[in-house]
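SAMPLE LOG
Freezer: B-3
Tube label: C17
Construct: single chain, 409 aa
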Amino acid sequence: MKRTTKQHNSLLFICLAFALITCLGASQSHASGYGIFVQGADALGQANSTIAHSDGPSAVYFNPALLTSLTGTQIEVGTTAVIPSRKFKSDSDGSREKTEDKVYFPSTFYLSHQLNERWSAGLAVFNPFGLGTVWDSDWEGNSIATKSRITTFNINPSIAYQVTPRLAIGAGLDILILDAKLKNEAITDQQLTGDGEGIGFNVGLQLQITEELSFGAAYRSKVDIDIDGKVTFSPSVQDFFPNTDVKTSITLPAQFTAGLAYSFSPNWVVEAGVRWEDWSSFDELKVELEQVSALPSNSVSYPRNWDDTWAFNVGTKYRLNDRVALMAGYLYGDNPVPDSTFEPAIPDSDTHLFTVGSELTFDQLKVTLAYGFQLQEDRDKEDNEYGDVANGEYENYLHLAAISLSYAF
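STRUCTURE (predicted):
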């Protein structure tokens, strides 16, 4: 049966709104959902078990209280090659699809400076959320997602104070900038570009319980980001859908981490930790479009209903001599996405991260290398809030290869 113009316009609007909601939701997935641990090679080599101990300026990110344990002025720069692989097996015909091969390079900059015996300061610039997903334009789920690219930058100045010989505290400001470019192909090509910013804070403490045992804890607040953007359409439908402005907002979740580190000797430390993320705050995404006569409404919302997540990790660092140290770690994390809102832009599942690393010291220069293999458990999509589109099994894993260079003045 031939659709009327009104029906055609309404269907296009539904597809547009669906695309926006799906793709913008993906911006949050990379924190817990894909578990990209790339805030420095030293931490990656220990599966991020660096909340209660640290010997480098990446402490600005993990626990600002640890800045008081660093002497002089230290600078660290680093990057990580993140190589994701996501595969799909269709329930409808057994066909298989995989995302396009892409390599991403989230990077870090850290600076620490000891002001005096009690006060220290630091600065971090890093990518806390981001990366992307690229499916073939003609795959079975192209009405939900084809391309998603999210980039965020966090500028994080911090300060720390040694309260007593055994207790240190720290705090910092999170200035977060987001940039997005998202595409999906429902009835016709639609592309969203947008940007926004938000402000949050982080705090931390470190308690030296005994000479060998230390406890660390850190909290990073949620960040509300207002996003202004534009949606563009293919020329074939611009008579009905001219390019239009959009507004939305997302909340990046609060995070709490804690760890216990034990030094078996001056050369060997082991830390076990836990991380909690407040993904339950992401219960709905609402998008506002500039009023266009062809649209039945300029506002649409869609449920997410995500859950809080927990992760557990253990890591170790052993110094063979003054020049060489070895690291290893393991992390298990659950995922926030319930079956009811599981979809291919965020093919999330419980994850296992296995890591190794090595640190080489040359006087004032340190070179740290680390590798991580992140295996996500297979997961099935069935009929849910996204209907019966792209039902099937999803397989995901990532390779992480990090390098950091640090220099102590």
